[in-house]
Write a structure and sequence with these properties.
By secondary structure, the protein is of the alpha/beta class. Helix content is 38%, strand content 19%. It binds pyridoxal-5'-phosphate.
């Protein structure tokens, strides 16, 4: 218990420092605590310490935790199969991992049935890693254009995952910088159902660099729960 709280204090302090270094306001950065694989008690401890937003990457686990703690804000951050869409829409605050057109259509379809809107971030594969999901940067503009035909889906920004940094954390900086640049560029264009207010980038290894490069959502798991 003390460990989670100490970890949280440390992560919050580092977020603050990264904000100060880069002229940002700490309140502008949302910390999503990634609770995948940790038990409900750990989630409760983090919640009591002031965290309201939790990230999960598996649908079953998300459903289980949502049922136990339905008043928290749950974020889907992992790859989502289209046949699981029905189990997610209506339970989640934000889907960070919209990575293909078929999934956009299914999310819209399900949201329409429930008569709600579903919010998602478009996952962009900046580094072009084959094993990572996401739309190629050059396809993002066309994707956002097409989203206008899906009235129950709201795109609220972008998400990316940097390659594993090994021992050189600076190696990830250009990835975050490029997504920020793309976001600034596309904000000047007009799309329907698109707001581009969030940049979800940065995990335990690299959230400070991500904030320095413009992230306003960071997804931190290990640094909090282990
Ligand atoms: C697991 C995961 C995280 C958190 O990773 P940590 O290294 O534990 O902070 C963030 N984003 C996604 C998409 C993840 O799957």
């Amino acid at each position: 218990m003390d460990k989670i709280i100490n970890n949280l204090n440390d992560v919050r302090y580092r977020i603050e420092q990264a904000c100060v270094r880069s002229g940002r306001t700490p309140g502008d950065v949302l910390l999503v605590a990634v609770s995948k694989t940790v038990d409900i008690d750990a989630v409760r401890i983090a919640h009591e310490a002031g965290i309201n937003d939790f990230g999960e990457n598996r649908v079953q686990e998300l459903n289980r935790k949502f049922e136990a703690l339905p008043d928290l804000k749950w974020h889907m951050i992992g790859r989502l199969q289209t046949n699981k869409v029905k189990d997610v829409v209506g339970q989640v605050e934000l889907i960070h991992s919209l990575d293909r057109w078929k999934l956009a259509e299914e999310l819209n379809k399900r949201a329409k049935i429930l008569d709600i809107n579903v919010s998602a971030l478009l996952q962009v594969n900046i580094a072009g890693e084959e094993q990572k999901a996401g739309v190629a940067p050059s396809d993002v503009d066309a994707f956002l254009d097409s989203v206008g035909s899906l009235p129950n889906l709201k795109i609220e920004g972008f998400m990316t995952m940097a390659p594993f940094a090994e021992d050189n954390i600076e190696s990830v900086r250009p990835v975050f910088r490029e997504l920020y640049k793309l976001s600034q560029e596309l904000k000047r264009r007009e799309y329907y159902n698109v707001s581009l207010k969030y940049l979800s980038m940065g995990m335990s290894q690299d959230y400070e660099v991500a904030i320095e490069e413009g992230a306003n959502i960071v997804r931190v798991g290990t640094a909090i729960f282990q």
